[in-house]
From TrEMBL:
Signal peptide: none annotated. It comes from Micromonospora echinofusca. Gene3D superfamilies: Glutamine Phosphoribosylpyrophosphate, subunit 1, domain 1, HUPs. The record marks 382 as: Important for beta-aspartyl-AMP intermediate formation. GO terms for molecular function: asparagine synthase (glutamine-hydrolyzing) activity; ATP binding. It catalyses: L-aspartate + L-glutamine + ATP + H2O = L-asparagine + L-glutamate + AMP + diphosphate + H(+). Residues 2-216 form the Glutamine amidotransferase type-2 domain. GO terms for cellular component: cytosol. Keywords: Amino-acid biosynthesis, Asparagine biosynthesis, ATP-binding, Glutamine amidotransferase, Nucleotide-binding. Belongs to the asparagine synthetase family. This is asparagine synthase (glutamine-hydrolyzing). Pathway: Amino-acid biosynthesis; L-asparagine biosynthesis; L-asparagine from L-aspartate (L-Gln route): step 1/1. NCBIfam families: asn_synth_AEB (TIGR01536). ATP binds at residues 263, 294, 380-381.
Length: 612
């Protein structure tokens, strides 16, 4: 995948410090990929092209890059772009210029020169870009509506640093690597606050925002937010409209100069995408559509159903493959791969920031790496559960009524959010429940409202907003970083803003009209899905249930906590640690151990000062 970085400084031109700018660009180069740069006056841009990860190559529009436009020999503006436009062809037709090719960077820049910052309202896709306007001596930073493409920045006294990933910004010597109390709270809170980037001073441009920088100041504004308006349609019209939107979105996202495939879990979301894509390809007279799933050695033998994972994926995957006649391959992972310390380090380097997702990130890293050996672009079903109400907490009265984020563990504060494993005095001082409450109140204040909306619809609107803006970003970050490391482009049909704007305003009674989770989505695609998938309950991304993995994890955690010099150890409750590493300890401490190992590795390998 492409990546961007840049440095604008009105008092200290970056062109005079080539070693620093080289380091910022090099931080994003993965697997031997190439890099482009551009500099003029106070501005410097760098763009990274994907490296040779093997398999087919996605080039052209999706590659991102740098593009400049001049008029009569006079420079007008330059853009550095990462991501993909899904309406690039339509924009090029509307703009009518003699484009050099189907290049998204050039398309965005031409749109900016025609419509100014208002161009953002016309874009459909996943993207982050920066424009240096030579005429105005002004920088514009833009991030897509849902924040699928990342963009970080760090303010300087007379300018700004920015990059697709924190590592590009960290490469500048003027950026301190320090985590304060709020940064640590953000790590352990299981909430992603828009704009917060854990490290003090580092910021993430929030989804749907743009930032303008001139010598005399800067401004930031939200150009898109989850909207609120009266839903105009009855149930049959709503079902039909959702289907029409999905058909159009999938067709658009299949456009590429290489074959596009899909991830398939046998769940409603991935099956919907896979079947619609297969039908579109068949109607175009193309070869059978390719799908990929993930499995683990011995998964069926070790599987134990839970409220998170109700059924194994494999039987439902097979049903979809037969029904849609896709060419399918299961990527089978071994627990031994997941236990490899080298893999943990690779995942952390890809993430740049701690997430606490443990083997969920590691298995996704391996899956994307394997798919990339075969394909360059893949469709995936992220954000459908947030939008259509698929998670269990949408249907749990206690979670719906809770005065907090609905996905947080409903346990006493001293047991949840890592409370039991941290030193009691430290955890009391940290006050994670108070931090979560503060962030929850901030989020509620943002929710758009409708006058006279029934209480149930108002509350479900709040929950949908919380999921789309505070939970989904954690999933999107994991997807982005793991796919970026593999050089794989992942497209997300359920993140299309047109679908979100429509579905988010559908009354809850319509979304759940038959009492089943994601009723509306099921109804929209019931004619194209096999019976088993239509009736399958939500089952989360699988994780290995091999007892050997848990045993190896306990051994690694025991070794870590036996070293008092490690930065995370001084924060822990020794009694809790002893219980966790015992051979007969319950498996529910697995995520906590994974998270602490990752956090300690991040603090040491990134040379982070923990200021708590």
């Amino acid at each position: 995948m492409s990546g961007i970085t840049g440095w604008v400084d009105f008092d200290r031109h970056p062109t005079g410090e080539p070693t620093v700018t080289d380091a910022m660009i090099a931080a994003l180069v993965d697997g031997g990929g190439g890099a482009d740069r551009w500099a003029a006056g106070p501005a410097l841009f760098g763009a990274v092209r994907p490296g040779p990860h093997g398999g087919p190559t996605a080039s052209g529009a999706a590659g991102g890059g740098i593009h400049s436009v001049s008029e009569a020999g006079t420079p007008l503006a330059t853009v550095v772009f990462a991501g993909t436009l899904h309406n690039g062809a339509e924009l090029r037709a509307e703009l009518g210029h003699g484009f050099t090719g189907p290049d998204d960077a050039e398309t965005v820049l031409r749109a900016y020169l025609r419509w100014g910052e208002g161009c953002v309202d016309r874009l459909n896709g996943m993207y982050a870009f920066a424009v240096w306007d030579v005429r105005e001596q002004e920088l514009l930073l833009v991030r897509d509506r849902m924040g699928v493409e990342p963009l970080y920045y760090f303010d300087l006294p007379s300018g700004v640093l920015f990059g697709s990933l924190p590592k590009a910004v960290f490469a500048h010597p003027r950026v301190p690597r320090r985590v304060d109390a709020d940064g640590f709270r953000e790590i352990v809170s299981v909430v992603k606050t828009p704009g917060h980037a854990i490290v003090a001073g580092l910021r993430e441009l929030p989804p749907g925002h743009l930032l303008r920088l001139r010598r005399d100041g800067r401004s930031q504004r939200c150009y898109w937010r989850v909207p609120a308006h009266q839903h105009p349609d009855d149930l049959p019209t709503t079902i039909r409209t959702v289907r029409e939107l999905l058909d159009d979105i999938v067709e658009r996202q299949l456009r590429a100069d290489t074959e596009v495939c899909s991830l398939l879990s046998g769940g409603l979301d991935s099956s919907t995408i896979s079947v619609l894509a297969a039908r579109t390809r068949a109607a175009q007279g193309r070869a059978a559509f390719r799908t990929y799933s993930v499995d683990f050695v011995g998964y069926a033998e070790h599987f134990q159903a839970s409220h998170m994972r109700t059924t194994p994926d494999a039987p439902f995957v097979a049903e979809v493959v037969r029904h849609a006649r896709t060419t399918h391959e299961a990527i089978v992972l071994d627990s031994a791969e997941l236990m490899d310390p080298g893999l943990r380090g690779a995942v952390l380097r890809a993430m740049d920031l701690p997430t606490g997702m443990g083997d969920l990130s590691a298995s996704l890293y391996l899956l994307f790496g394997a798919v990339r050996q075969r394909q360059a672009v893949v469709l995936s079903g992220e954000s459908a559960d947030e939008l259509f109400g698929g998670y269990s907490w949408y249907h749990d009265p206690a979670a719906v009524a809770a005065d907090t984020f609905p996905w947080l563990p409903r346990t006493p504060p001293e047991q949840g959010s890592g409370g039991g494993v941290f030193d009691p005095a430290f955890f009391a001082w940290l006050d994670v429940p108070g931090y979560q409450k503060r962030r929850y109140r901030e989020a509620l204040d943002e929710v758009p409202t409708l006058p006279g909306e029934p209480d149930q619809d108002r509350r479900m609107r709040e929950l949908t907003y919380l999921n789309l803006t505070r939970f989904s970003p954690m999933m999107l970050d994991r997807k982005d970083r793991m796919s970026r490391a593999a050089g794989l482009e992942v497209r997300l049909p359920f993140c299309d803003h047109r679908l979100i704007e429509y579905v988010v305003n559908v009354p809850w009674a319509m979304k759940s009209f038959d009492g089943f989770e994601k009723s509306l989505l099921r109804a929209a695609v019931e004619d194209v899905l096999p019976p088993g998938v239509r009736q399958r309950r939500k089952s989360h991304f699988p994780r290995t249930q091999d007892p050997a993995y848990l045993a190896a994890l306990r051994a690694e955690f025991a070794a870590l906590t036996a070293r008092p010099e490690e930065p995370v150890v001084r924060l822990l409750n020794a009694d809790t640690v002893r219980r966790m590493v015992a051979a007969d300890a319950p498996a529910d401490s697995r995520a906590t151990m994974e998270g602490l190992i990752e956090l300690n590795h991040w603090l040491t390998s990134y040379d982070i000062t923990l200021d708590v």
